[in-house]
Design a protein that fits this description.
The complex is a heterodimer of chains A (about 400) and B (about 260).
Chain A: H1 2-24, E1 30-43, E2 55-69, E3 74-85, E4 93-104, E5 108-115, E6 148-157, E7 160-167, E8 194-195, E9 205-214, E10 217-227, E11 232-235, E12 242-246, E13 248-260, E14 263-273, E15 278-290, E16 299-309, E17 321-330, E18 338-346, E19 352-362, E20 366-376, E21 392-400
Parallel strand pairs in A: 8-12
Antiparallel strand pairs in A: 1-2, 1-21, 2-3, 3-4, 4-5, 5-6, 6-7, 7-9, 9-10, 10-13, 11-12, 13-14, 14-15, 15-16, 16-17, 17-18, 18-19, 19-20, 20-21
Chain B: H1 2-12, H2 22-36, E1 42-52, E2 58-68, E3 76-83, E4 91-95, E5 103-108, E6 113-117, H3 133-136, E7 144-154, E8 157-166, E9 173-181, E10 187-194, E11 199-211, E12 215-225, E13 231-241, H4 252-255
Antiparallel strand pairs in B: 1-2, 1-13, 2-3, 3-4, 4-5, 5-6, 7-8, 8-9, 9-10, 10-11, 11-12, 12-13
The chains are: A mainly beta (about 400), B mainly beta (about 260).
């Protein structure tokens, strides 16, 4: 709750700050952009749990303010985020995705504030990407992230780029509430989260990353020390809820992509050490694109990845021995029509989850997106089992400004 | 590079050559045109792209382009998209090369993800327009073989007409016919022939303006597709040269802070 209040507080400050900037700035770049959207989710089956319904409309507002001065040497970005969800009070939330000051020099850059960082190359999951917390209520695909308070120094050298991160405050993962779909059988009580470190959320997390391009090869090597973004979910004393427990972890990650002609070869490997466990996980695969198929403008990409985790524990991760097969279609038309279809199958149990995403621009400022997630899960020893009846179809209409 | 120096030496003695073949003349025109556009170091410009379908319905895209001239190699380029708004902030970095594949990265602002992408997609449409990626990439002499065809006056401008055949992989064209004016060696018109060798597109260059007393830039470029009736016009504006950009401004790290 404290976090919630502080976020609201931040939002208020940033709006005031933004307004002040707009009034004061004259000769410098200064702009608003962003989108708002209506989303409608339809769940094909009734929830196995009593409360959640089958229809879920929601609304999103995602503005972004950008201001730069000193001929672009300094800039400020403010990106609040709001979702109002009719069903799930936990999915109704605000966040500051970004509130970051950037200072640029020739050989280095400094970023201060809340920000978002992406590391990695693969499509099915993002093992090495550990800086930001997952905003799980937004989407079960874990692609949405919460703003992370950080000091980020980047150095650019001939032998590569070095990024240094100091993160003074931890953001807790969001989880669906009792009225939400895509929840676990016992609801996660996020207000009772506990920490291995006595410093709790104030544990000082640090990370270091080196990245470099060698011809066709793009390589990144990273190490993170701090609070594990993925909590262990433990039963509470009355056995009626799950409590997130955040351990301290060391994680070393390696990501490599080789790009030759139409082939992209990708590999991500991590080694994670926590008090409760030490393990190695990897995602590796290939993406091949046929450009302009059948004399048309259309591109057809084929994606295949293998997902491995040596804990071999379906409850820790469903992707311990799985294969992704997917295709990405791009029509390359005026409306940028795209379709992505992916299927992840467990090698042993044959459990399957499908992900389908399509989008098309309408006019210059509207975009229609459709999404479907289908779960075919029989194995009740997997983390995906609680989603077995959460097959859904979603339409989103967004207006960009 | 060595080939190139060799070519230059060869062209220098050209006036004394006895009988110049059509291939030699075609090459000489291309080299002269390329030489006249050397030394601009770096440039930036804004571009509005208007797409028209067969029924005359229009849609618009706005992008900003910066380029860095590279000695003995293809240029480096950084493109940032302003509209359509759903792709605002998307940035595209390209290291072009003559005959080996270009290196390309794209930044997706929603995910904050920098992605290395395949550069095999030469013939695909750029942002749904009638311009293919290969039409907007930097011109390098070794990318084509040349053959001078004839002299021709178009729109009152005396031109050389040459036939160019792409020597790089994955081109969508068997050949192009290029009109270059005799006075300033500027490209005036290009006919593109598809893989079946039939006329696909016609590109016209107009509103040329001179910068720094040396560099001509066409402020309007229209591409008309002869097969589907669509057309795209590029309106260029705000050209700037020698602004002091260096290779450091064209690295994948720079993608993340483009606006």
């Amino acid at each position: 709750m404290i976090l919630n209040v502080s976020v609201k507080h931040w939002v208020k400050i940033s709006w005031l700050f933004g307004a002040a900037m707009m009034l004061s700035a004259t000769a410098t770049a200064n702009e608003w952009s962003g989108y708002m959207a209506g989303e409608y989710r339809y769940f094909q089956h009734e929830s196995p749990f009593a409360d959640p319904g089958q229809y879920d409309p929601s609304f999103v507002l995602s503005p972004e303010y950008y201001h730069e001065w000193d001929e672009g040497q300094q800039s400020l970005i403010i990106a609040p985020f709001l979702r109002i969800d009719q069903q799930d009070a936990e999915r109704t939330h605000v966040d500051l995705r970004e509130l970051q000051w950037l200072y640029v020099e020739d050989d280095w850059e400094l970023r201060l504030g809340l920000g978002k960082v992406f590391w990695g190359v693969t499509e099915s999951q993002h093992l090495v990407d550990v800086i930001n917390q997952t905003d799980l209520v937004e989407n079960s695909d874990t692609e949405d992230k919460l703003g992370q308070p950080m000091i980020n120094l980047s150095f650019f050298q001939d032998w590569g780029t070095v990024d240094l991160f100091v993160m003074p405050y931890f953001r807790e993962r969001t989880f669906a509430g009792k009225d939400g779909r895509l929840r676990s059988s016992l609801v996660v009580d996020t207000d009772k989260a506990s920490y291995e470190s006595g410093a709790g959320r104030q544990h000082l997390d640090v990370a270091l990353r080196w990245s470099q391009t060698f011809g066709d090869w793009d390589v990144g090597l990273s190490h993170f020390y701090g609070t594990n973004r993925e909590p262990l979910l433990q039963l509470n004393a009355t056995f009626d809820a799950l409590i997130p427990y955040y351990e301290i972890m060391h994680q070393t990650g390696l990501d490599i992509q080789q790009t030759t002609e139409s082939w992209l070869w990708k590999l991500e490997v991590i080694r994670r050490e926590t008090t409760s466990d030490t393990f190695t996980a990897l995602t590796g695969g290939v993406e091949y694109t046929f450009y302009g198929v059948f004399e048309s403008n259309m591109d057809v990409g084929l994606i295949a990845e293998y997902l491995f985790d040596d804990r071999n524990d379906e409850l820790a991760t469903p992707f311990e021995d799985d294969v992704l097969i997917g295709t990405r279609l791009a029509w390359n038309d005026e409306q940028s029509t795209e379709l992505l279809v992916g299927m992840i199958q467990d090698v042993e149990s044959s459990d399957v989850s499908w992900n389908i995403e399509a989008s098309r621009r309408i006019g210059d400022r509207w975009k229609l997106s459709a999404e479907a997630r289908l779960f075919s899960v029989r194995n009740n020893d997997t983390a995906l089992y609680s989603f077995r009846d959460d097959d859904y179809f979603q339409l989103e209409l967004a207006r960009y400004f | 590079m060595r080939n190139y120096i060799f070519l230059l030496a060869f062209i220098a003695v050209m006036p004394f050559a006895q009988a110049e073949t059509a291939e030699e003349k075609g090459l000489a025109i291309a080299v002269e045109s390329d030489n006249r556009d050397k030394g601009w170091s770096d440039s930036s410009a804004e571009m509005k792209m208007v797409l028209r379908n067969r029924h005359g319905k229009e849609s618009t895209r706005k992008i900003r382009v910066t380029n860095l001239e590279m000695d003995g190699d293809g240029d480096k380029g950084l493109t940032v998209f302003d509209t359509p708004r759903d792709v605002k902030g998307t940035a595209f970095l390209s290291y072009s090369h003559s005959l080996v594949p270009d290196e390309q990265w794209i930044f997706l602002p929603a995910l904050k993800r920098v992605k290395r992408i395949s550069s095999s997609n030469k013939s695909g449409p750029f942002m749904g327009s009638e311009f293919a990626y290969e039409d907007i990439s930097s011109f390098e002499v070794p990318k084509y073989s040349y053959k001078y065809l004839r002299d021709e006056t178009i729109g009152g401008i005396e031109c050389f007409v040459s036939e160019l055949r792409p020597q790089y992989k994955h081109s969508g064209y068997t050949k192009t016919h290029v009109w270059i004016d005799k006075a300033e060696y500027r490209v005036q018109k290009i006919d593109f022939y598809d893989r079946k060798d039939s006329l696909l597109k016609i590109q016209r260059f107009t509103d040329y303006k001179l910068y720094l007393d040396q560099y001509w830039r066409a402020h309007t470029q229209t591409m008309e597709n002869q097969q589907n009736g669509k057309s795209t016009t590029l309106y260029w504006d705000n050209f700037q040269f020698k602004t002091g950009l260096t290779e450091k401004d064209f690295e994948k790290n720079d993608l993340k802070r483009q606006r």
